[in-house]
Structure prediction request, 234 residues.
Amino acid sequence: MIRTAVILGMGGLGCPAALLLCEEASAAELPLHLVLVDDDRVEASNLSRQILYRDGDRGGLKVDVAARRLAPFGPLVEIESRPVRFDPSTSAQLLRTADVVLDGTDAFETRFAVNDACCAAGIALVHGAVLGWTGQILTVLPRRGSCLRCLFEGPPPPGALPACSEAGVASPLCGVIGAAMAAEAMRVLTGLPARAAGRLLVWEGATGRRREIPVRPDPVCAACGAPARAERHP
Prediction:
């Protein structure tokens, strides 16, 4: 049976996640439909951490360039390029056949929108983020545990935290987090227990320290709690 993974954001996290997911699926002989979602084009500033792109790719759509680089993994891995942005007008179509979603987007509002959409649709989500020298992942298994809103409730107020473009990101740490996201997605796709379900795994790149923060289900969570489920299924 072909499994479908959707990667949102083909940047510093999406590139290594896509590459490692293709390699893991090929090694496991798992037929995979990989959907790459991003409406950005390759820029010179991307090349230091977005490992699927080269200097000659500047100006090309990220999803198209990435699909060409990942093509050698076929025919076991089928790559689909979707040069669109995840928003209310595209979310249902993008997630329609997904078995797992890997969120490597860099906007707080988008991360929570993805979390909410996956919880509503019952789709497993692997959230990843890097800011400065700190990276994190959290796996959301709807109806079986906690979600991003159980931990943070909602996006921070505008200006409360710097964006990735302002604070920067440590390029090597992007590879670490992207690889961890791919490993989690493979565990979900193959039925193994997810290591980051119910806990936020945090990497401190400057010190090499890794820590875990328990994330307990919030019974009144706006995305996965009882009120949210009752609203979706009155």
Notes: The first strand starts at residue 3 and ends at 8. DSSP finds eight helices and eight strands in the chain. Residues 11 and 52 are 9 Å apart (CA to CA). The first helix runs from residue 14 to 27.
